[in-house]
Amino acid sequence: MVLVPAARGIVQALMRSNTFEEIAQIMECDVESVVSCIKECQLVEGNTATFKLPTKPATVRRPHKVADNVVEQILRDHPSYTSLDVQRQLASQHGIEMNRRTLQRRVSDIKSKAVPAKNVGLSVDARNRRVDWALAHQDWTVRDWRNVFNMDDQKFVDGSPPKQIFVDTLVGPEGSNSSDLSLREQLMAIIQPKIEAQAPKNVHEFRAVLYDAWHSDQEMVDKIEQLYESMPGRVQLVLLSGGDKIKL
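^ Transposase Tc1-like domain-containing protein, sequence as received from the core. Prediction below:
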């Protein structure tokens, strides 16, 4: 296709800020015609310099830095959080919405590159809190821990009354960053991978999905039972070590 003289002036004007492909789209012609037209114009003007394709600087797509920084901070504060946990906190506490799949990749990337923090030890206050917590639970049996959470809403009894369950029984010693003693975090680490693909949107859906898994996924139930069986031993290790973290 040969461009008429009137069109050549337009091409010359466009070449200052557009690529050949963009000019061809604007002029509704093929790229070869654009190249031929520009070469001809340059020869007429006496411009015999090497002919180069006008280019625009490539657009570099950067991730949302603010959201990325918030995600990293959330995972530093809560290493056991899944992408679903992070998504909920982003929305509820920071007003940030992120695509679920994008967030899953980002969480996976951050966790894979995370460098374990140096063990600087727990503060005296944190150790004391852990010891106090362990003393309060030192006579708890596996049955007592099993009664904290089960989807059948039943209490296991063996002749003695069930223990009273407090908030710190489930979440661990307050203010001591004790994920090793947080039954909630340990349970979620087992449960979340099993139900995450179904992405429950509210508490009702979460319970329904978990109820189905509880009665169909024996592997999950076995891991939860192993967790309950480990809790009395964890309590004793905390007491013997004076409040040190437990190596899981």
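Confidence is low (pLDDT under 50) at residues 48-63.
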